[in-house]
Specification:
The protein is mostly beta strands. The protein has 1 helix and 11 strands. Strand 3 and strand 4 (88-93) form a beta hairpin.
C-alpha cells in the first residue's frame, strides 16, 4: 500500500491573504479599482484692478492712508475725524530729536499729468535747511519741489507729476524736523488730473 501523504499545513498571514484577494479574479468589486478620475474646477480669475476714478471736475478723493516712520527718531502720529463735514486731520509730531515721518496712500493711475494738493498747518517747526526741516507733499521716489517750515492754517501745498503709463503711485504727506507739529487737512487732500494720455 502506498504510504499516504501527510497533510501539509500552510500558514497565510492576513496581509498575504489580502494581497491574494486583490490579485484574484473573484476579488470583491469594492476592493478593485481600475481608474480614478479627478476633475479640477477652474479657478475664477480675479477682475483686473480699476484705476482711481475722477469726477467731472477732474478731481479724486484719495484712499485711506497709512503712517510710516521713514528715518531718524520715531515721530508721534495721530489722526482725528468728526464726520465728512467736520474737521479731519492727520498729524505728525517731532519727539525732540530729528525725525522723518509720513502719511502715505497708493493709487492706480492711468497715464497722464497729475497734481497732488492739500492744506497743512505747522506749529513750532524749526527753519533748518541743513536737515530739510519742514513739510511737503510728494510721491515716493521723487523729491519735494516745495518744503515749508512755517505754515499757518490754510497753507496749500501741491506737487505735480507725470505718469508715463498705467501704474501705481504712492502719495506722501511728509514731515521732517526735531521739534514742532505738522497737521494735514484730510478733507483737502486730493488728486487733480490735469490731462489724460490719449495713447
Amino acid at each position: 500500500m502506498s504510504p499516504r501523504s501527510a497533510p501539509v499545513s500552510v500558514g497565510i498571514s492576513s496581509s498575504a491573504a489580502f494581497l491574494h484577494c486583490r490579485s484574484a479574479s473573484f476579488c470583491p468589486p469594492e476592493l478593485s479599482v481600475s481608474r480614478v478620475t479627478v476633475t479640477l474646477e477652474p479657478v475664477p480669475e480675479s477682475p483686473p484692478p480699476k484705476p482711481l476714478a475722477f469726477g467731472a471736475s477732474g478731481e479724486a478723493k484719495l484712499p485711506e492712508r497709512n503712517l510710516q516712520w521713514d528715518s531718524g527718531s520715531k515721530p508721534f502720529f495721530s489722526s482725528s475725524a468728526t464726520g465728512d463735514a467736520g474737521s479731519r486731520w492727520l498729524e505728525i509730531r517731532a519727539p525732540g530729536t530729528l525725525a522723518n515721518g509720513s502719511w502715505r496712500t497708493c493709487a492706480l493711475l492711468e497715464a497722464g499729468q497729475y497734481r497732488f494738493v492739500g492744506r497743512v498747518q505747522t506749529t513750532g517747526v524749526e527753519d533748518d535747511a541743513s536737515v530739510l526741516a519742514g513739510v511737503a507733499l510728494r510721491v515716493s521716489g521723487g523729491g519735494a519741489t516745495r518744503r515749508v517750515s512755517a505754515a499757518p492754517a490754510g497753507t496749500t501745498l501741491s506737487y505735480d507729476f507725470i505718469m508715463p503709463t498705467l501704474g501705481y503711485v504712492e502719495l506722501v504727506c511728509e514731515f521732517r524736523g526735531s521739534q514742532g507739529t505738522a497737521r494735514f487737512d484730510l478733507n483737502s487732500l486730493k488728486l487733480i488730473r490735469n490731462s489724460k494720455s490719449r495713447g
